[in-house]
Amino acid sequence: MTEVDKTKLFAKQEFFIMTGKKKILIIDDELDLTMLMEHILLSTGLYEVVVANDGIEGCNKISDEKPDLIMLDYIMPRLKGDEVLKFIRMKSGLTEIPVIVMSGLTPTGFPEEGVVEPDFNNLPGDLLGESSSIAFPGELIKNFKVSAVLSKPFSKQKLIEMVERVLKVSN
Question: Which residues, listed in sequence order, are joined to residue 70 by a DSSP beta bridge?
């Protein structure tokens, strides 16, 4: 990162500290969806939105932007959602950022939609049951502290409600 980039980033961070807006990073490879989500969240006037279109770009933006919330697609090219989660939870300074995982997987591939129980020590080892072979076991939720699961497709109202609930819980 150049000195000019660092100066711009610092100025941007100061602006949002002063205005009280929360910074949300959307990491999803569906460009139409990210543009729609960005529009919806910006229209509330409460958030700054940053977008990354794959997991590698997302990891770079997480480190650079230090968002208040990450909305993470689970199935992406180059770096899947679980790998991004591992990066977030292992890197100093990022471990407490709340994450909403989004996916269009069938109901058998994901636990029930909603804000995940905050008592991570009492979650079962596998929220999906013994026969689940699609990839989002309870261990991942427990170990990487996913704040919520949002099933695709979702409504504008559901998106805003989920973001508000998770940010309220994490503050």
Answer: 25, 99
Stated pTM of the model: 0.73
pLDDT category at 154 given cuts 50, 70, 90 is confident
Residue 149: partners with Cβ closer than 8 Å, 6 or more residues away: 100, 101, 102, 103, 110, 111, 112, 113, 114, 116, 136
Give the end-to-end CA distance of the chain in Å, rounded to a whole number. Answer: 30
Count the helices and strands in the chain (H runs, E runs). 6, 6
H/E stretch holding 128 reads none
More confident of the two residues 61 and 78: 61
- Asked whether the beta carbons of 70 and 88 are under 8 A apart, the reply is yes
Phi, psi of 50 (to 5 degrees): -120, 140
